[in-house]
Write a sequence for this structure.
């Protein structure tokens, strides 16, 4: 019984870390691999403005209803730590006064939940499963062997409803969306190695708009223009 108790306790701890820890995305091999990039004081930034189809492909949560999504990679100067903070980042619509800082996964998931609650339509929402596996297992979909430990899976749920009855409107659905956005978001904190992830900006989307990303780096503003 004691062994089972400790196994359950460890599992819950691992699950907590798996859900809470920001993972971001894998940085590309070089900053020049990003469509837009800039450099300042030895540190480099690479960025990509996602199109609506790319957003739909990358996320289960329907971000096209609320946000402009940017993938950002930060490459610190060799041998130095760089403090990565969302507070240092702003997205501007060129030629206008419109600008926004990145919103957290908590805020965006609440916005998406509220949007779903006011709709009556076919809705696609994320479904995430989390489990714990001991030993190893062969995954026929990828042809790889997966080790034991915490694992997650993602899928979608589709339904028709109104208000709180719709998929995506419940608190559980909001939590699932928040988990997806947090895990894919840009990790914050001190970085000695390249880090990358997505940024979510709440602002109106326009097909013909031109955007400029500003990042405060060591007291200076680095500008990245998206073509």
């Amino acid at each position: 019984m004691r062994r089972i108790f400790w196994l359950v306790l460890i599992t819950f701890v691992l699950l907590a870390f798996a859900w809470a820890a920001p993972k971001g995305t894998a940085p590309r091999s070089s900053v020049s691999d990003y469509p837009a990039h800039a450099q300042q004081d030895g540190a480099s930034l690479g960025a990509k403005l996602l199109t609506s189809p790319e957003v739909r492909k990358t996320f289960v949560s329907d971000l096209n209803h609320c946000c402009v999504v940017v993938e950002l990679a930060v490459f610190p100067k060799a041998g130095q730590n760089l403090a990565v903070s969302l507070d240092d980042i702003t997205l501007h619509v060129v030629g206008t006064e419109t600008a926004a800082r990145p919103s957290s996964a908590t805020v965006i998931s609440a916005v998406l939940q509220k949007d779903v609650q006011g709709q009556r339509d076919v809705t696609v929402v994320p479904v995430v499963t989390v489990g714990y596996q001991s030993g190893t297992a062969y995954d026929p979909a990828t042809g790889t062997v997966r080790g034991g430990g915490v694992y997650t899976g993602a899928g979608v749920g589709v339904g028709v409803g109104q208000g709180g009855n719709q998929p995506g409107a419940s608190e559980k659905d909001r939590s699932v969306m928040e988990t997806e956005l947090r895990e894919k978001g840009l990790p914050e904190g001190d970085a000695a190695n390249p880090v990358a992830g997505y940024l979510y900006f709440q602002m109106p989307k326009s097909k013909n708009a031109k955007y400029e990303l500003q990042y405060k780096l060591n007291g200076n503003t680095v500008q990245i223009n998206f073509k």
